[in-house]
Amino acid sequence: MPRKFTPKVITGNALLEGDVVYLAADDSWTRELSQAELITDEADAQVRLIDAQARVGEVTGVYLADMAEGETGPEPTHFREDFRRTGPSNYFLGKQAS
Amino acid sequence: MSVIVTDEGFGQDDWNGTYASLEDGGAPGIDLPSDTDPAALAALPEGTSMVRIAFPSSADGRGFTLARLLRMRGYRGRLRAQGHLIADQYAMARRCGFDEVEIDDALAERQPEDQWLFRANWQAHDYQARVRG
Amino acid sequence: MYRYDDFDAAFVAERNRQFRAQVERRIDGSLTEEEFKPLRLMNGLYLQLHAYMLRVAIPYGTLRSAQMTQLAYIADKWDKGYGHFTTRQNIQYNWPKLRDIPDMLDALAEVEMHAIQTSGNTIRNVTADHFAGAAEDEVADPRPVAELIRQWSTDHPEFQFMPRKFKIAVTGSPNDRAVTAAHDIGIRIVERDGEIGYQVLVGGGLGRTPMIGKVISDFVSGDDLLPYLEAIVSVWNVLGRRDNKFKSRIKITVHEHGIDAIRDLVEERFAEVKPLFSGVDQEMLAAITAQFAAPEFRQAPTDAYDAAYESDPTFRAWADTNLFAHRADGYAIAQISLKAHGETPGDATSEQMRVMADLAERFGHDELRISHEQNVVLPHVHKSDLPEVHKILKAHRLATANIGLVSDIIACPGMDYCALATARSIPIAQQIATRFDELKIEHEIGDLKIKISGCINACGHHHVGHIGILGLDRAGVENYQVTLGGDHTETASLGERTGPGFSADEIVGAVETIVETYMSERESAEETFIQTYRRVGMAPFKAALYPEKAKADAEARANAA
Fold it and tell me: Across the strands, what pairs with C336?
């Protein structure tokens, strides 16, 4: 039996700034995970990913990241994504500081 | 169609000979894949006047060593790098003994002549020339 | 110290001009991301978890004060006011923007520095003993030949798109402080019948498949060295595997073909390559060596040092741990710990960088070193100046007296920054250091090297730590594997796994258990951790770490009997 599809967001890093961005439902890139579109359909996710990866002048390293539905938008299910939306744990820098 | 890049920029292919593999021989030109065993270069037929080394990907740098070996072992004919080389690798190719680079039209369009001519100064700023003397 | 000549300066300027154009060509679409990536990497630019990262080379770990001051300036102007010194004698900036990089590189060029080949499938920054030119036990200063290798390898046209990265380290001392056995090529300067030459090791490396380097030649003479190195790299460039990233390093090539077969191929290639070298490199080496002439050491009394040592216990503790014997009378090698308890190993603020630069200028013949242990070294300080140096260091949280002790931890950036990491390293290092500081026993424990990596790639050298810690992702949770008995010196060896890993909450306690076990097992305070481990083996540590398992085993044995 195929594995059940888990919800995802499309994420990558901004080409010029290098920081973490997420794809929003209106196809814009947002710096806030809470603004990202949570994609629940696998076919939809694949098509959206291909389109997002083609935007090479805006972003780089685009991929699908597992997320869960939270009260204020998508929530990471893995600690790596939690760090990406927060910043390093040794200094108050990165997203947590902005 | 393809474009031939030299220090003068883009040009047409003026080589009219045919190519054969190292095993087959029988042609004035020899095509070498990037995974050619250096020991096999000894089989290069006498009288070969063109060797074309393939670069299947710009990340595959084996052709640079193969070119160097051919030159070290006395090959004086034309030496051409063919395939996915980018303008930024032009100086490396020339320094390793290639005379020219053959690229396809799509790459030539994406990386136009001026980007290749930017590295036509490959003889300048060359640490190798300095340490070898 | 080496100063750029016109050639070096023009080269770096031209290279920066090229990279500036490459950045713009990536933005305008002339270069695809796939094409741009190796180009940015060979200029030191990574894309990490939160931002770009620029890795700047500090060749053979040597810096002048003006260079350190410029590193501070760059940290303030384009980054967030700090830098991270790495195990490969680089400094990393964690927050630059893409279009700022060319300006940062130009600023580096102003002080004769660059970021060339600090990444990519190229020959990387050449590293060397951080006590070079100062240590008592040296056959010859490794920096001149390291500089020659830097020039030979820089922009080498044949070696910019190799199967994988390639690292070279040089030691001029039989006491190997450059971890040469864990490099693709390790070079050890040796003397034979009055002639200086090089013992060459090949195929060492940590990472997924850790290997200790094997001797490919016992003695390569000076004029043969560059062609010999070129032969090794040239053989591997074609022979090394490109089908599998995990099997591409030369250690695997050597393992697959055998050192004897590789040696034969290298000898054969060497015979072809050697005639291309006219021997002018030996004249260059002589000129470079002259530039590394020792500074004029001062003859002066050391009364001030003796008095402070007698009267000031804080100074005495620092002197006992952080100083190393210098070859000149009245001098010491002073190590500045970047491991203040609870801080990030290897990090320095721009202010601290300026303080260290100023100290080097005033008291240290203008020289600084970066060690692979992520500390800074003032290689030449007259002992009479040490009390003043210590006072200034103390005022800037740079006088931690812990070199070589349990809190002098090597740690890679781990998942706090690194895109490859599988777990965090920094918080683990911070917690271990803080814990042992609370226990106030680190001086009693003595020489003990903890090394932490946040992934299998082993930037934190965990395999060669007396205690090695490897952070992994186990089903979405950080988990830490422990190895014991690694050794990074001339008696290099790889650590052995204790058993199942520990959670982030358990790992500090596990290290404490290991240290307690050592303390109770050691024959005297003089027997170091590694000595004890070699004498008693893994068993007592295992028993202490996994008491449930030990108990079950004992019961099983009792039942069987």
Answer: C376
The model carries a pTM of: 0.96
How, if at all, do strands C376-382 and C331-336 pair? antiparallel
**Residue C242 to residue B62, Cβ atoms within 8 A:** yes
**Residue C553 pLDDT grade (very low, low, confident, very high; cuts 50, 70, 90):** confident
pLDDT value of position C550: 80
Residues of C with Cβ-Cβ distance to B62 under 8 angstroms: 237-238, 242
Q: Given CB atoms, is B39 within the 8 Å cutoff of chain C?
A: no
Confidence of residue C428 (pLDDT cuts 50, 70, 90): very high
Q: Domain boundaries in chain C?
A: 1-114, 303-395, 410-555
Best of B96, B121, B125 to mutate (most C CBs within 10 Å, chain C): B125
Percent of chain C with pLDDT strictly greater than 70: 100
**Radius of gyration of chain A from its Cα atoms, rounded to whole angstroms:** 13
By Cβ distance, the residue of C94, C99, C478 closest to A79 is C478
Nearest to C11 among B69, B119, B125 (CB): B125
Burial of C489 (0-12, 13-18, 19+ CB in 10 A): middle
For the stretch C230-254, pLDDT in tens is: 999 999 999 999 999 999 999 999 9
Cα separation, C314 vs C320, in Å, equals: 10
Interchain contact, A17 vs C51, CB within 8 Å:
yes
List the subunits that have 3+ CB pairs under 8 angstroms with C: A, B
CATH architecture label of C1-114: 2-Layer Sandwich (3.30)
Q: Which residue has the tokens 């804080």?
A: C314
> Which numeric CATH code is attached to C410-555?
3.30.413.10
Q: Cα separation of C122 and C167, whole Å?
A: 9
- Quick check: C429 and C471 in contact, CB under 8 A? no
- A→C contacts (Cβ < 8 Å), by residue, are 13, 15-20, 56-57, 60-61, 77-80, 83-84, 87-91, 93-95
Q: Are C383 and C331 in contact (CB under 8 A)?
A: yes
Sign of CA dihedral B103, B105, B106, B111: positive
The DSSP bridge pattern shows strands C195-202 and C214-221 to be: antiparallel
Q: Do B115 and C281 touch (CB under 8 A)?
A: no
Place of tokens 């490099």: C183
Contact C114, C12 (CB under 8 A): yes
Q: How far apart, in whole angstroms, are the C-alpha atoms of residue C341 and residue C158?
A: 45
Helix (H, G, I), strand (E, B) or coil at C203: coil
Rounded to a whole number, what is the largest CA-CA distance in chain C? 80
In whole angstroms, give the CA distance from residue B11 to residue B17.
17
Where in C203-254 does DSSP place strands (E)? 214-221
What is the count of structural domains for chain B? 1
Structure tokens at B67: 């070119």
pLDDT-derived band at A26, boundaries 50, 70, 90? very high
Question: Across the interface, do C161 and B133 touch by the CB < 8 Å criterion?
Answer: no
Residue A2 has pLDDT above 70, yes or no: no
Which residues form the domain of B76?
2-37+46-132
Q: Which residues contact C490 (CB under 8 A, 6 or more apart)?
A: C174, C175, C176, C181
CATH code that applies to domain C303-395: 3.90.480.20
Q: What is the C-alpha separation between C106 and B2, in angstroms, rounded?
A: 37
Residues constituting chain C: 561
Residue C555 has pLDDT above 70, yes or no: yes
Residues of C in contact with B64 (CB under 8 A): 157-161, 237
pLDDT at site C444? 96
**Judging by DSSP bridges, how do beta strands C323-325 and A8-14 pair with one another?**
unpaired
Nearest to C237 among B65, B88, B93 (CB): B65
Residue C28 sits at the chain B interface (C-beta within 8 Å): no
| Nearest C-alpha in C relative to A87 | C50
Tell whether B89 lies on the interface with C, counting CB pairs under 8 A.
Answer: yes
